[in-house]
């Protein structure tokens, strides 16, 4: 103040800001701290983003005022802490948001460990996700070819548990829920039994039933249908092939079981006590992300990505540390430079064939110009 006296607290203003008063001259003032203001704006932004309120319902602000105050929050890039201790079980799965794919890894407690953005679930994308986590004892995943190739390269000693629910979905796609043949009906029943297995003895019995099925109906998986030759030399086939498997769907359904049994990916959960499905990730994490996007429909793809990342931070229990991500670069982003012309501005035309008002020549309209 003017008298250089030490200020003391003197209540708060109508806006809730601390008021300070000089005990000598009685002058009163308030102080504003940019860091406190940014913290309050970020809290307001996250409360809106992860909640159900509209922008106009947030702290009594109008939608325009709210967007103007928190627009810098979209530049914050939240990250999960580095995983240093190998977890016992890791569950991985992917989901799609707008134009992006999101690969997520969680532990047994459904705590997000890492995420990776991608255009599709390729081997390179899955490998980028797995490199963020030390190799666990068991990984629970679906049946994508990219994820299994990445596991072989990044976690070669990790055991794999294929998601039993995804196996059941594939069986339903191949056989339908109402197969017409005895072979399809019995194979579908094996799929139902697989979902209820909880002991080693039941698993051994199930493997024996699969073997019995192949002894009885295995010849159907090898039967072929041959196309007839037309007069013009082409094959009478909708696809142009000379032959195809007569029971292709039945063959695919059985081959799925045979491949999983050969690799030992069916009953890892009985030996290690891990989860047997990725449902915890899909229902607990993916569903929460989709719910955030559903509550705030209309966001741009980049804002959808940022909203998904904040939802993962919330699920990881790190939302209280959100202010650590609010760096000066994020709160005060550098403006983009104005584009430069590739060629210098030529300036006004000196000689031209166009009409100019300075010369008294221009196009006239109406009666004067007879147009």
Structure explained in plain terms:
The chain is an alpha+beta fold and 371 residues long. It has a domain at 8-75. It is 38% helix and 14% strand. It contains twelve helices and twelve strands. The protein has helices at 34-49, 63-70, 123-130, 145-154, 164-175, 182-194, 200-217, 248-263, 268-272, 279-295, 301-315, 328-331, and strands at 8-12, 18-21, 28-30, 89-97, 100-106, 112-118, 138-141, 159-162, 224-226, 228-229, 235-236, 243-245. Strands 6-5-4-7-8 form a five-stranded mixed β-sheet, sandwiched between helices. Strand 2 (18-21) and strand 3 form a beta hairpin. The longest helix is centred in the middle third of the chain and has 18 residues, at 200-217. It is flat. The N and C termini lie far apart (75 Å). The mean pLDDT is 86.
């Amino acid at each position: 103040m003017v008298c250089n006296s030490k200020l003391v607290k003197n209540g708060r203003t109508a806006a809730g800001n601390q008021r300070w008063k000089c005990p000598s001259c009685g002058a009163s003032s308030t102080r504003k701290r940019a860091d406190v203001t940014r913290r309050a704006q970020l809290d307001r932004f996250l409360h809106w983003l992860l909640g159900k309120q509209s922008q106009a319902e947030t702290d009594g602000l109008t939608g325009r005022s709210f967007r103007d105050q928190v627009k810098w929050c979209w530049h914050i890039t939240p990250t999960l802490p580095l995983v240093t201790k190998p977890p016992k079980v890791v569950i991985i799965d992917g989901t799609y948001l707008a134009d992006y794919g999101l690969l997520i890894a969680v532990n047994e407690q459904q705590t997000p460990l890492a995420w990776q953005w991608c255009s599709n679930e390729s081997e390179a994308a899955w490998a980028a996700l797995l490199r963020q986590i030390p190799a666990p004892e068991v990984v629970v995943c679906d049946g994508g070819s990219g994820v299994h190739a990445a596991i072989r390269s990044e976690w070669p000693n990790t055991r794999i548990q294929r998601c039993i629910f995804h196996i059941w979905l594939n069986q339903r796609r191949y056989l339908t829920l109402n197969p017409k043949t005895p072979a399809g009906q019995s194979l579908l029943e094996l799929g139902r039994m697989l979902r209820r297995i909880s002991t080693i003895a039941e698993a051994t019995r199930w493997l024996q039933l699969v073997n019995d099925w192949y002894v009885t109906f295995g010849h159907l998986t090898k039967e072929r249908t041959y196309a007839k030759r037309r007069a013009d030399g082409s094959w009478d086939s909708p696809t142009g092939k000379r032959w195809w498997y007569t029971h292709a769907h039945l063959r695919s359904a059985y081959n799925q079981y045979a491949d999983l049994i050969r690799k030992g990916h069916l009953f890892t959960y009985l030996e290690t006590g891990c989860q047997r499905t990725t449902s915890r990730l899909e229902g607990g994490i993916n569903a929460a992300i989709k719910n955030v996007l559903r509550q705030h429909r209309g966001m741009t793809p980049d804002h959808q990505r940022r909203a998904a990342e904040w939802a993962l931070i919330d699920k990881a229990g790190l939302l209280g540390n959100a202010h650590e991500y609010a760096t000066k670069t994020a709160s005060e982003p550098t403006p983009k430079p104005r584009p430069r012309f590739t060629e210098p501005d030529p300036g006004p035309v000196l000689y031209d064939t166009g009409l100019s008002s300075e010369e008294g020549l221009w196009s006239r309209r109406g009666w004067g110009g007879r147009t």
